[in-house]
From TrEMBL:
This is Related to methyl-accepting chemotaxis protein. InterPro entries: MCPsignal_dom (IPR004089). GO terms for cellular component: membrane. Pfam families: MCPsignal. PANTHER family: LYSOZYME-LIKE PROTEIN-RELATED (PTHR32089:SF112), METHYL-ACCEPTING CHEMOTAXIS PROTEIN MCPB (PTHR32089). Residues 217-382 form the Methyl-accepting transducer domain. One of its GO terms (biological process) is signal transduction. It comes from the Bacteria. Residues 340-361 are annotated as: Disordered. Keywords: Plasmid, Transducer.
């Protein structure tokens, strides 16, 4: 109980330390009927218990006045939108009569909410891309902490949160919620996480704690890795086409080489035929010579046979003279075919090397593509 003579001292003390009380406080003095004096913290100045307002007949102030003793009462959220703890002490005059009540009203906050202003500024500096931290009650943002390099002006303490946002979903489900917002919502991609704040006594949810983290670096990293992956995919497609072309070249060169081998064989057969023609020409010449001798012996009777013998010898000479030309042409064919064969072999070897190099390049590109996919996965986790 408090002496009436100490009221001025109490008022002075309240004036000095009202804004030092964690979570805030409202100090009140009533004369038994109405509130006659009020002092509230800047952080806790609800529009309740105003000077001149009548006391509720069932209030803790009236109980303290009536029973002449201190009363402590917890006020449910349903009355004022916030849970309160009220302490009421009767004020006595020199005769011991109750002439008024001094009371203190404290918001009943979860430790997370009451400590938010202490830890939030420190925590916000730990995020390189910035962060927005917040706590809510069941309807609105109670506190919001923006970092220097990331602010969301649309989130302000005292504003009600919207339907289907993370705090709304947490309150409806009583479970932690995470959402990835595209850049169309906040201007940059944002990762949002929110957790329920549960009353230690009742076990009921009383609010939420959440944070919004911009994913600027992750977004850029994903864009770069996506561009890299797209570019590599296009290059890989081109390389595959080149590899297929090189394979076709290899097959065609192999066929050409086989054809050249066939031509060489034919040229060798032509040489054999030429030798055979030369042998026939020699034999025909001998036959013509013998026929001429026999025609000379026969005299007049053998003159016609002699003419035929002369023609046979001429034909033999012409056939024999044609053989070197055929051989010369055949040798030239063989030479050219040999040169073509060497070039074909060189081309075949080059095409084989090209195909092998293309396979190696394709394998390297597959490795780079895999790394690009890993970059995408890392960006998604950031």
């Amino acid at each position: 109980m408090i002496s009436v003579h100490g009221i001025d001292y109490i008022k002075g003390m309240c004036e000095l330390q009202v804004d030092e009380v964690p979570g805030g406080v409202i100090y009140l003095i009533s004369d038994g009927n109405v509130f006659t004096w009020r002092k509230a913290s800047m952080d806790f100045n609800l529009d309740i218990f105003q000077v001149g307002e009548k006391l509720n007949a069932e209030s803790v102030n009236v109980k303290a006045l009536r029973e002449k003793k201190r009363f402590v009462e917890n006020v449910p959220r349903s009355l004022y939108g916030i849970r309160l703890k009220v302490i009421a002490d009767p004020i006595l005059d020199d005769d011991g009569e109750v002439v008024g009540v001094f009371s203190m009203v404290f918001p009943v906050l979860h430790p997370m909410m009451s400590a938010f202003k202490d830890f939030a500024p420190v925590l916000s500096d730990m995020f390189s891309d910035g962060v927005v931290l917040f706590v809510t009650d069941l309807n609105k943002f109670v506190e919001v902490q923006h970092s220097e390099n990331f602010e969301l002006p649309e989130l302000r303490a005292g504003d009600e949160f919207k339907i289907d946002t993370t705090p709304d979903k947490v309150i409806k489900t009583n479970k932690a919620v995470s959402i990835e917002y595209p850049s169309s919502v906040y201007g940059v991609p944002v990762s949002a996480a929110c957790h329920p704040i549960v009353d230690e006594v009742t076990g009921k949810i009383v609010g939420t704690f959440g944070l919004l983290i911009p994913k600027v670096v992750a977004s850029k990293l994903k864009e770069v890795s996506q561009s890299l992956e797209d570019g590599i995919t296009e290059i890989a497609s081109t390389i595959e086409e080149l590899a297929a072309s090189a394979s076709n070249i290899h097959v065609n060169e192999q066929k050409l080489n086989n054809s050249i081998d066939g031509i060489t064989s034919l040229s060798e057969e032509i040489n054999s035929v030429t030798k055979f023609i030369k042998d026939i020409a020699n034999q025909t010449k001998m036959l013509g010579l013998n026929a001429s001798i026999e025609a000379a012996r026969a005299g007049e009777i053998g003159k016609g046979f002699g003419v035929v013998a002369d023609e046979i010898r001429k034909l033999s000479e012409e056939s024999k003279s044609t053989v070197p030309k055929i051989k010369e042409l055949t040798d030239k064919i063989i030479q050219k075919v040999s040169e073509s064969s060497e070039m074909s072999q060189s081309s075949l070897s080059s095409s084989q090397e090209q195909a092998a190099a293309t396979q190696e390049i394709t394998a390297s590109i597959e490795e780079i593509t895999s790394m690009a996919e890993n970059l995408n996965e890392i960006a998604d986790r950031l």
